[in-house]
Specification:
The structure holds two protein chains of two kinds.
Chain A lengths: L5 H35 L1 H10 L1 E7 L6 E2 L5 E14 L6 H9 L6 H13 L5 E8 L1 H9 L7 E10 L3 H8 L2 E3 L2 H6 L13 E3 L2 H5 L1 H5 L3 E7 L5 E8 L7 E3 L3 H10 L5 E7 L5 E7 L5 H4 L4 H9 L8 H4 L9 H11 L8 E3 L2 E4 L2 E4 L7 E3 L1 H6 L3 H11 L1 H10 L21 H8 L5 H8 L9 H13 L8 E4 L16 H16 L18 E7 L6 H5 L15 E8 L6 E7 L5 H18 L13 H22 L7
Parallel strand pairs in A: 2-10
Antiparallel strand pairs in A: 1-8, 2-3, 3-4, 3-5, 6-7, 8-9, 10-17, 11-12, 11-20, 13-16, 14-15, 18-19, 19-20
Helix pairs in contact in A: 10-23, 14-16, 14-17, 14-21, 16-19
Chain B lengths: L2 H7 L12 H21 L8 H20 L2 H25 L1 E3 L2 E6 L4 E2 L1 H19 L8 H20 L3 H18 L3 H20 L10 H11 L10 H13 L10 H4 L11 H34 L3 H25 L17 H19 L7
Antiparallel strand pairs in B: 1-2, 2-3
Helix pairs in contact in B: 2-3, 2-12, 3-14, 4-5, 4-6, 5-6, 5-7, 5-13, 6-7, 7-13, 10-12, 12-13, 13-14
Classes of the chains: A alpha+beta, B mainly alpha.
Chain lengths: 647, 381
């Protein structure tokens, strides 16, 4: 190891001391600076810290619009005048609210909530007293502002649904972010932390939330000692959310809602060429605007207690026994399995004997000798007992799934049901019993365990009409992205078999004696092919039969049969397919088919269907019915509360 | 001194651990503890956000320090040139494939840590210069030829760091290297010349703004001008300094109280867990707290400089001195920056700011200081 001599050592110590002195000098400056800032200028900086804070706030972006396929507004943003109270500027909140109560209406529960919030939050946080005020009310409050310190009028953007009633189930609604929402989201957007920020709660608003929301902007503001905003220093606007166009045609949607007024019913109309859902109507609707500012408990209870279930989207959430509308599935299963030929006949004597059980056809006297076409046209049950027996449950289940039944389709909506298309294994797994021939009989006429939603039935109709694997879709475009071109594969079904079934459906609606003949379209270019269905909710008991109850009309509403109708049109070049259900409506031909025909025609003609398209003897009645229904519809929409837009 | 004497005087084996500079070790732990407290506070009372990872890294670093201290200082002298070349290689490597972060290419991702080669270079440069002057006979240190070589050793990494671009580190390297040359006894005339030409360079840099040969980045210009007049742009680049001063100033004598700093809580402060952590400390613990930390730093400097001056091994002495000055520059620049005495250049507060690379390198450097102390030649008197 090398150690240096004394001279160098001395130099090192000298230089070391010089360096140490230099460092002490700098440390001295630092100490002096600390003293200066923290002791000498303390008062000044303390004041700056208290009185002149510069803060950054998030600016909520404008939420994307929801439009129908033609650009008609379904969900938009509008200016919302509201009044807030800043607690620190109010000496007596109760007295101030009393005073304000003389100018605008403050319901008691609202008043209590305001007083609670005032106590719970920091004194400088504005608490919303009333929202959605009219311009007159705001003017009145502004004029009286001097006597009510701490009461401030504000303007913000809020969501509104101009077509609220008709699209309530589809578009859904927004509401304030709840703790539960926050818990569900993995990486929360800082926007969600803004008090009263609104996000989609259901429907498209919820499922396309990330597209619609947009990105936050920022605002630099100077805040006072109390944290109140003094002035804005700079602002960068956020990025507005993407506009969403649905495949819905609001004209058809609104017409369907009007046509179903007074009923608990649902209809789905699909453009068979693309899978676009042009109408998806569930009656009755509700007013989504009520939810934007928090729904009153009375209105909420009313919606929950209504036995017509206005909050439920029956088109996708309702699972019903498809009844006779299921017969096409059974026929196709039998044809494809090779156990039946289209011109083969089956004898119907009014019932089929199975051991000691007797399975009735709806026509007591029987249909006699029936082939495929007539079995559909007259909806002969015995024919389908025989087909079901021949082809078996597993083949029926497979065919049903091929046609879009028994599958939960992916649409941006909540609570989409899968329905139920059982096979033999299903019963073993779920009922711990073996599948019986009786089960197959019930399957054959769409009863028993079988369940399907109107959406699924409309897809079934569309697939039968085209022979293609039509996939439903509800979103046309998001933002500036071009609409997707649907890719459709042909169904793996013999075209001749499909044509035979379509022929049967044609006979239903166009051949005298067909169950839907009365509800035909009286226009050769628009001829419809359909199928009626009446599904039993329950079996009329022997006791009831003994008591004289033989028909639906004599039963209480909620025990009557569901009425169903599926159809597509025009027959030769299919364009639209529809599935219609009227809950507890009675017969499919009388309750469901008339509505389905009207809605289908509205889609086909692109306007209110011309009277000339109805059989001549029905025209005057149709005209009367229209006037009556329009009045009832306007009344219902008004009762559901259209958005009371301030001028 | 004979071979036998040294063997007798320099501790060997496990007993070496008792020869560590214990006051220095205690001071290091004390400063780091202040850091943990503040990291816990700026995280709003969350321990696992910053404080806990920092604590783990400090533990690892402290262990590394002791291991390095146990290795004979002769070994460190011998590896010094290789350490320098290695660090230089890493600097070139970030130039080629470094991760781009915060607008500057500074890091190499080693998987478990983001290594900042410029940190390593700060120590390696001091090491190689100390080794150089250890070998060079004292009569030659001021001869121009023997001055040019260390200058090259300094300026090559400085040029690489400037290219990243990292002005703060470049200055640190120059001043750290300069300190070793100063301690080695290089004539004061050279330093006078360097200061004059440095001033000239600053002038040239300022002149270069807006021209095609602009020498530093726009944001660095903005920081310099903002430093000169922070009130001109209270919400732009001057925001940091203004808010930092308000935070410190509002702390007063006794401070706002632990975890009570409003400026920090309300997010007025930028990078509050890294470069600006001193302002939070000053806001929450006031004048008392700031002066205590400054006092602890001063004590570290004093202990190290005394160790440097009393060490008769030239390498150990110069190494300790150089590392001490580097450490000093770290906290002096950081404090000066957050108190508005110099431009914001992005230097962390040593041992306190959140960050793994800087912490580990610093503790390794203190390991070298400790090694020089443990293995210093003893005189039998």
């Amino acid at each position: 190891m090398k150690t240096t001599g004394e001279p160098a050592k001395g130099l090192l110590t000298r230089r070391g001391l010089m360096l140490l002195g230099l460092q002490f000098g700098v440390i001295g400056v630092l100490g002096w600076r600390i003293h200066n800032l923290q002791i000498v200028q303390n008062r000044e900086f303390r004041m700056l810290a208290e009185e002149n804070r510069i803060n950054i706030r998030l600016l909520p972006p404008a939420r994307g619009l929801v439009q129908d396929r033609n650009g008609r507004l379904l969900a938009g943003n509008r200016q919302n005048y509201r009044v807030v109270m800043v607690a620190e500027q109010v000496s007596d909140p109760e007295a101030t609210l009393d005073l304000l109560g003389t100018l605008i209406d403050i319901p008691p529960d609202r008043r209590e909530k305001v007083l609670r919030d005032v106590k719970a939050r920091s004194a400088f946080v504005p608490v919303v007293v009333a929202e959605n005020l009219s311009w007159d009310e705001i003017a009145l409050i502004s004029a009286n502002a001097p006597v009510m310190p701490g009461i401030l009028p504000e303007v913000g953007l809020s969501r509104y649904y101009p077509e609220g009633y008709a699209t309530s189930h589809l578009v859904g609604y927004v509401g304030p972010v709840s703790e539960r929402d926050l818990a569900k989201i993995e990486d929360p957007d800082p926007l969600l932390q803004i008090p009263r920020f609104q996000i989609g709660k259901t429907g498209v608003e919820q499922r396309l939330e990330t597209d619609l929301r947009g990105r936050a902007g920022t605002q630099q503001i100077e805040v006072s000692a109390a944290g109140r905003v003094m002035r804005e220093l700079s602002r960068s606007e956020g990025i507005p959310g993407d506009d969403v166009r649905l495949t819905i045609d609001q004209g058809i949607q609104d017409f369907a809602m009007r046509r179903m007024i007074g009923e608990s019913a649902a209809a789905t109309v699909i453009d068979v060429r693309t899978g676009d859902i042009v109408a998806m109507a569930s009656s009755p609707g509700f007013n989504p605007n009520s939810f934007v500012f928090g729904i009153s408990s009375r209105e909420w209870k009313g919606l929950l207690d209504d036995e017509y279930r206005p909050l439920s989207n029956k088109t996708v959430s309702g699972a019903y026994p498809p009844g006779s509308t299921f017969k096409m599935v059974v026929a196709l299963a039998a044809l494809e399995a090779g156990v039946m030929r289209p011109n083969e006949t089956v004898h119907c004597s009014g019932f089929t004997q199975l051991g000691r059980r007797r399975f009735h056809c709806w026509k007591r006297g029987g249909h006699g000798s029936v082939d495929l076409k007539n079995s559909l046209a007259h909806s002969c049950d015995a024919y389908y007992y025989e087909m079901a027996r021949r082809v078996g449950a597993d083949n029926i289940s497979a065919m049903a799934k091929k046609l879009g039944l028994g599958i939960a389709h992916d649409l941006p909506l909540p609570a989409i049901t899968e329905g139920l298309m059982p096979d033999r294994q299903w019963k073993v797994d779920n009922r711990k019993e073996a599948w019986t021939v009786g089960d197959s009989f019930n399957y054959g006429i769409g009863q028993g365990f079988t369940l399907a939603s109107p959406l699924q039935l409309s897809i079934m109709a569309a697939r039968i009409a085209t022979g293609m694997k039509v996939m439903p879709r509800l979103v046309h475009t998001v933002g500036d992205n071009p609409p997707e071109v649907p890719e459709m594969a042909p169904l793996d079904i013999n075209p001749a078999h499909l044509a035979a079934v379509r022929g049967g459906m044609y006979a239903v609606s166009n051949v005298p004696g067909g169950t839907g003949f009365r509800m035909r379209i009286f226009d050769d270019a628009m001829q419809m092919a359909g199928k009626t269905g009446t599904s039993q909710v329950r079996i009329i008991t022997a006791a009831e039969r003994a008591a004289g109850v033989t028909s639906n009309a004599q039963l209480p509403w909620n025990r009557r049969d569901h009425a169903l109708f599926v159809a597509f049109a025009p027959y030769d070049v299919p364009r639209y397919a529809i599935a219609q259900i009227v809950e507890h409506g009675g017969g499919g031909s009388t309750a469901a088919a008339p509505i389905a025909r009207d809605v289908l025609m509205r889609a086909l003609y692109g306007e209110e269907p011309p009277l000339s398209a109805y059989p001549p003897e029905q025209r005057s009645q149709i005209e009367e019915q229209r006037i009556e229904q329009l009045a009832k519809y306007q009344e219902a929409v008004a009762a559901a509360g259209v958005a009371d837009v301030p001028a | 001194m004979s071979q036998v004497d040294r063997q007798y005087l320099v501790p060997r084996g496990p007993s070496k651990i008792f020869a560590l500079n214990f006051p220095l070790t205690v001071l290091i732990v004390a400063v780091a503890s202040a850091g943990f407290l503040m990291l816990f506070s700026v995280a709003g009372g969350q321990i696992d956000r910053w404080a806990w990872p920092q604590l783990i890294r400090f533990g690892v670093g402290l262990a590394a320090m002791i291991v390095i201290a146990m290795v004979p200082i002769r070994f460190w002298r011998i590896v010094s040139p290789s350490a320098y070349l290695g660090a230089l290689g890493l600097l070139v490597l970030v130039e080629i494939m470094g991760t781009v972060g915060m607008g500057a290419q500074r890091w190499i991702d080693l998987g478990f840590i983001l290594l900042q080669p410029s940190e390593v270079m700060k120590i390696a440069l001091v090491m190689v210069l100390a080794a150089y002057y250890h070998v060079l006979s004292p009569e030659k240190v001021s001869r121009p030829l023997w001055v040019i070589l260390p200058l090259i050793l300094i300026l090559v990494p400085v040029a690489l760091v400037l290219k990243q671009p990292d002005l703060g580190t470049a200055l640190l390297l120059m001043m750290g290297g300069g300190a070793v040359m100063f301690l080695a006894g290089v004539s004061l005339w050279y330093f006078g010349t360097a200061i004059v030409s440095g001033a000239g360079l600053v002038y040239a840099v300022l002149k270069s703004q807006g021209t095609s040969w602009q020498l530093i980045k726009d944001y660095q210009f903005r920081r310099i001008f903002t430093f000169l007049d922070p009130s001109a742009d209270p919400l732009g680049a001057g925001y940091h300094i203004t808010q930092a001063k308000i935070a410190m100033g509002s702390g007063g004598f006794a401070g706002r109280g632990y975890m009570q700093g409003t400026q920090t809580r309300l997010n007025f402060l930028p990078e509050k867990h890294t470069d600006f952590i001193f302002t939070t400390l000053a806001e929450e613990f006031g004048f008392v707290g700031s002066m205590t930390v400054l006092g602890l730093y001063t004590l570290i400097i004093v202990f190290c400089m005394v160790s440097a001056m009393s060490n008769r091994d030239r390498f150990g002495s110069l190494l300790t001195g150089g590392i001490t000055v580097t450490f000093f520059l770290f906290f002096a620049i950081n404090m000066g920056m957050v108190m508005g005495l110099m431009p914001v250049v992005g230097v962390p507060l040593p041992l306190v700011s959140y960050g793994g690379s800087a912490m580990l390198v610093l503790l390794a450097a203190f390991g070298l200081v400790q090694s020089a102390h443990v293995h210093r030649p003893r005189q039998t008197g």
